[in-house]
């Protein structure tokens, strides 16, 4: 097909703002290079929301296939409504990106704050652990002393009982 025929098939107007393509399920349109064409959607001021066919190879295609899927261009109040909706979506996308950036920076700040808080908590727990280890050591010493006192007491009791038995004989 000649370039002249391609231009006639493509219709008028350019599309500098489009959204991703999808594979067709409606009988399929084949581009000049034999691939299934993709359906894309233009969001230019002249053709808001208007769908078109593009080569299945994508934007790097050598065949440069283009044809409007929606035969009539948008017009009247519908065109205006589409343009307003497009502009609103763009503003919301910008705001969303701004909020994501702010959230990411706050996330880093919060992460730094969390790291400091965790470090302080770890230090506090380590001091508490040392104090508990000292207290545990003191309790072990008391346990040993009490055990010794108990043993001495038992030995003394046994000696006393043996002495009484010997005196009774």
TrEMBL record:
PROSITE patterns: ZF_GRF. Pfam families: DUF7900, Zn_ribbon_GRF. The chain crosses the membrane at residues 149-166. Residues 79-142 form a coiled coil. Keywords: Coiled coil, Membrane, Metal-binding, Transmembrane, Transmembrane helix, Zinc, Zinc-finger. Residues 10-21 have a biased composition (Low complexity). Residues 1-21 are annotated as: Disordered. Residues 31-72 form the GRF-type domain. GO terms for molecular function: zinc ion binding. It comes from the Eukaryota. This is GRF-type domain-containing protein. It comes from Arabidopsis arenosa (Sand rock-cress).
């Amino acid at each position: 097909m000649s370039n002249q025929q391609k231009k006639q098939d493509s219709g008028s107007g350019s599309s500098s703002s489009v959204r991703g393509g999808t594979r067709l399920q409606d009988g399929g349109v084949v581009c000049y290079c034999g691939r299934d064409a993709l359906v894309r959607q233009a969001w230019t001021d002249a053709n808001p929301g208007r769908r078109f066919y593009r080569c299945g190879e994508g934007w790097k295609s050598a065949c440069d296939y283009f044809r409007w899927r929606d035969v009539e261009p948008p017009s009247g109040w519908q065109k205006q409504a589409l343009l307003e909706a497009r502009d609103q979506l763009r503003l919301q996308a910008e705001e969303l990106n701004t909020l994501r950036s702010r959230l990411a920076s706050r996330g880093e700040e919060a992460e730094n704050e969390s790291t400091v808080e965790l470090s302080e908590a770890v230090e506090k727990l380590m001091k508490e652990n040392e104090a508990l280890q000292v207290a545990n050591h003191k309790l072990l010493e008391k346990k040993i002393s009490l055990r010794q006192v108990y043993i001495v007491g038992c030995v003394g009791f046994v000696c006393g009982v043996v002495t009484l038995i010997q005196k009774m004989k």
